[in-house]
Amino acid sequence: MKNMEGYYDFSGQKFGYPLSLSINGFMQDVFARQSSLEISYVLQGSYEAVTEHFTETIHAGEMVVIAPDEIHLLAKRQADSMVLTIHIDFSRMADSMVGDPKESFRSGVFRAGQNRTGYFALKRKIGALVRMLIEEKSNLLRLNVLMAELVLVAASSDAVGVSQLPLQSAHQENYMKAIRYIDTHFREPLSLGDVAQQLSFSLSYTSKLLKKYTGLPFVKYLSYVRVRGSLEALLEGREQIEQIALDCGMASAKAYTTTFKELYGVLPSAYRKQFQSNLRYSGQGYRRMELDDAQKQLLRHLLDEETSVLYEDERLVVWQEGDTVCCQAKAGWQGAEVRADGKCLLHLPAVQPFREQSKTDLSAVDFPNGACKSDKK
Known about the structure:
The protein is an alpha+beta fold. It is built from twelve helices and 18 strands. The protein has helices spanning 95-98, 116-134, 140-155, 170-185, 192-199, 203-214, 218-229, 231-236, 241-247, 253-264, 268-277, 293-305; strands at residues 8-11, 19-24, 36-44, 46-51, 55-59, 63-66, 72-76, 82-89, 108-110, 281-282, 285-286, 308-312, 316-321, 324-329, 335-338, 343-348, 360-366, 373-374. The protein has a six-stranded antiparallel β-sheet, with helices on one face. Strands 12-13-14-18 form a four-stranded mixed β-sheet, with no helix packed on it. It has a three-stranded antiparallel β-sheet with strand order 5-4-7, with no helix packed on it. Helix 2 runs antiparallel to helix 3 (140-155) and helix 5 crosses helix 6. The radius of gyration is 24 Å and the shape is globular. It starts with 7 loop residues before the first strand and ends with a strand.
């Protein structure tokens, strides 16, 4: 995307708050690393997610969770792709609340057809967060609860994405070694020869390796990494752009501005201005998200997803709509009955490790006044 249309950024970093949320369609073909937990949900189109451990394409309605401090890339694979990204920065929390985030998370892909429990739980929490920011119902305590619930679901060992495709070839392994070295040293004076020497590669091999996997010459890729690494300082707005350019390793403010416009389609000053306009704050709460009709359409399904869930497991979900309790099996059931005491019994096909019989009474749920609304699959 070569303009700021479709861009929105709510960032707690302006207030020292751990949670940030953005919606954008920027080209992001640059590896990044941050101390935060990242959850990226594809709103439209498709992206390729690449980490040190897997590479996989994710489509609309799917999401990828990136563990803290893992080097990764999220590259557009369709021109009109849009992604909603949430960052939860543990460095802005007390150690006594967090523990060691590096040991609590694994990166992975979440889809409706896989790891369903984690997928639907994350999707509903994202929907609740979006609703809070869109509607004028900002509440810091509720925001804290939603953030903690997102972290808990993402940290659950049984909810981690199972489709992790390892990078198999020696060339891919060497490529990631080069990327990690650039990621660590980009703020220093750095040449292709430095990278080759540190990794004991030939100059020619290193050049061809980076060009093959990044699609860019080394100098161009390095400049993109430097600009990408400067974003937090730029958005915090405390330093002049000239100083930010030098701090990230660029030769001059002019070179920084030119590269920034290549990446984001706007000048860094315009990017900062747009970001800050989304961060206005008043004593009554955060500024309401101002979304255009196209963005609202992309987010509508997330708002519909955010319901009052009473119970959920890998086979059944029960939620409340007004005075009615609704239930739906994620796998088809063989029958349902409402007993005189107001309990609804669903008979699901037996699946190991459940009892070996034709029917299993998986759950008995209390329904107000015996009311039960269900959609039988």
